[in-house]
Amino acid sequence: MRDGLPRTVMVVALGAAGACAAAVAGSTAGAAGAGGASAGVLQGRAALPGATTLTIYSSAQPGAIPVALYRPTLDAPAPAAESVPGYALVSQQRRVELPAGVSELAISDVAALIEPTTVRFSAGEDGDARVLEQNFQFDLVNIPKLLSRYIDKPVSVDVPGASGTTTLAGTLLAAGDGLVIRGEDGSVHALRQYSNLRVADVPGGLITRPTLLWRVSARRAGVRQAQVSYETRGITWWADYNLTFAPGSDANSGLLDVAAWVSILNQSGASYDEARLKLVAGDLHRAQPPGIPMPMHAARLATAAAPEGFSEQPLFEYHLYTLGRPTTLPDRSTKQLELIEPARRVPARKLLVYAGQGDLRYAGGVFLDRALAGDAGQKVNVYLEFRNDARSGLGVPLPKGRVRVSQADPADGSLQLVGEDVIDHTPVNERVTLRLGAAFDVIGERRQVDFALDTKARRMEEEIEVRLRNHKRETVAVRVRESLYRAGTWTMLSNSSDYERLDAHTVEFPVDVPADGERVLRYRVRYTW
Prior knowledge:
Blueprint (H helix, E strand, L loop, with lengths): L9 E5 L5 E5 L17 E2 L8 E7 L8 H4 L15 E13 L2 E7 L6 E10 L5 E9 L5 H7 L4 E8 L2 E13 L1 E6 L4 E4 L4 E4 L11 E8 L3 E12 L1 E13 L5 E14 L5 E14 L9 E4 L11 E6 L2 E6 L3 E3 L3 E22 L26 E8 L12 E8 L6 E9 L6 E9 L3 E13 L4 E12 L5 E8 L5 E7 L4 E4 L2 E8 L3 E12 L1
């Protein structure tokens, strides 16, 4: 090499007008070959086998993780890892060898999205070694930074020409939209086309990987077992449930097979080999900068029967679930683990609910307008309901997640999707209700039959008629849900079917509609204020 620079130190491949890619081909004393720590800094060893504990939290809403976040396509770049809705607490044990006195220790195999203010380091017992300073270095080397550090320093560049490529050695004067170099003969060259540029070394302060650096004071020299912990973004998990419904002896009963999986997405910039995996369940509050949602929702896992599955224990007001075997989470990967042992033949009820007013609710005050408020048309919604208790075959805490329900085709046994919904954290002995869609063969129709208003007496009456038509070959049970929204006080004057009060202003009428038949529900209500 004519420029006299050290060979195979750093090769920067440059295209026209500075399009670039870089590769480290070797190193010299003080280079960033071990994460960029300078000469004299002790390099921390990798975490001990099986000595990494990874506790993952999630702020993901059920079913809200976009596929592109964990399965990017070739024609679309993956979303930024910072957008992954979750974080993790990493705790590692490492063996470090410290000299007596004050020394510096560097660890470079940490997550790229580490939260520096959460780092904790301890080594030795009884104050034998203590941390004086802690630094997180993240000024990673790239082409612009490298060139800016080599202004007024010697470089070597290959320049294409009509007769072939020549090598120009000299001093770099400027770098941006091309290069300006003063040659060894004093001439100045402005280059927009060049193929390679070589420099002697990575300048001080630039590193190839994020690095934790500690200044440690030790009373004596020797090997110690250090504990390193920190939080990192770019990692999350969520739950998915797969339910298979088998119809029962009547149109409104059936049995469910329940299976569940947890998915873990790791885009934190680090891999975790043979880690002990823990997942925290509950709704944790975290202090966040303005503009960032504060609740951090961590879904809850159920305990699996197998010893290698998840075991549960209380943690403050939450629950901690630990996987019974080590697992590896490579960077930029998605892993799925069985969440609960599959439950078979869980009793379920199929509910048909007609809410002709839609989502109308009493909002206070008095509504005197004769016109009907709210209109949900003729759709009768379909729900699936089961109880999360041991008697039903479950009895495990169910985490927030997406639920997909399928039913077997009687012709060939293939599974067909019949609907999906999301559930919130559901403790043991609570009821799970899933909205799956709208009935095809059951129709509802709602109209106002009579309306009377007496403002002097501060009273009004309204009579409502609901017609239900069933085009099935069997009788179906439909629940007619009505909101008594016109005033704060109401009295039911007449009703053709019994009703149940769901809350202060909502009632529900159970109505059996015969096969290929019709039922008419009427009720009259008086409002006073």
